[in-house]
Amino acid sequence: MAVRLFEGKDHAASYLQYRVTPHEIISKIMSYMENNELYKLAVDVGCGPGKGTVLLAPYFTRVVGTDISQAMVERALAKNNPPNISYRHCPAEETPFASGEVDLVTAMTAAHWFDRPRFLQEADRILRPGGCLALLSYTMDMILEYRDISNVLNDICREVQSRS
């Protein structure tokens, strides 16, 4: 079951003030993408106040930040956002995107709150073939379980961590 925190307006304001902005990590994610073209759609799940969401704007025609907290979505909308960014209120495990529509799904320091099996199923559904899923976290103390590729997913996470 997903955890529902950070939903109040006061908490959302504090979160915006102290949230890390992962500039370098976005560059690294984009280096893993197939080429340097302008992609169509990125979805930043659990976007909070949108600090990481806006960093995706130069690489995509459209970027959508989603969060289960309406207060966080309101914070994100209150900022001066690039014109290709929008925000939606929805749970990580139930997004409003068509199957195969998304080039990149990110969860920047949020995936530990999700119902991971359901979130991974949703990410798999909405990602296009060859799309990218990037989970950013403060810790690697997370095991991913999905279909028959759980071991491969966790091996990839360990390999990326060892390169850092």
Structural key phrases:
single chain; 164 residues; alpha/beta; Rossmann fold; five-stranded parallel beta sheet; 5 strands; globular
CATH superfamily: Vaccinia Virus protein VP39
Q: Which architecture does the CATH hierarchy give at level 2?
A: 3-Layer(aba) Sandwich
Tally of distinct domains: 1
Mean pLDDT: 83
Oligomer: single chain
The shape is globular
Structure explained in plain terms:
With about 160 residues, the protein is α/β, with parallel strands linked by helices. The chain has one domain (about 10-140): Vaccinia Virus protein VP39 (Rossmann fold). It is about 35% helix and about 25% strand. The chain contains 5 helices and 5 strands, in the order ααββαββαβα. A 5-stranded parallel β-sheet has the order 3-2-1-4-5. β2 (about 60-65), α3 (about 70-80) and β3 (about 85-90) form a beta-alpha-beta unit. The mean pLDDT is about 85. InterPro entries: Diverse_substrate_MTase, Methyltransf_11, SAM-dependent_MTases_sf.
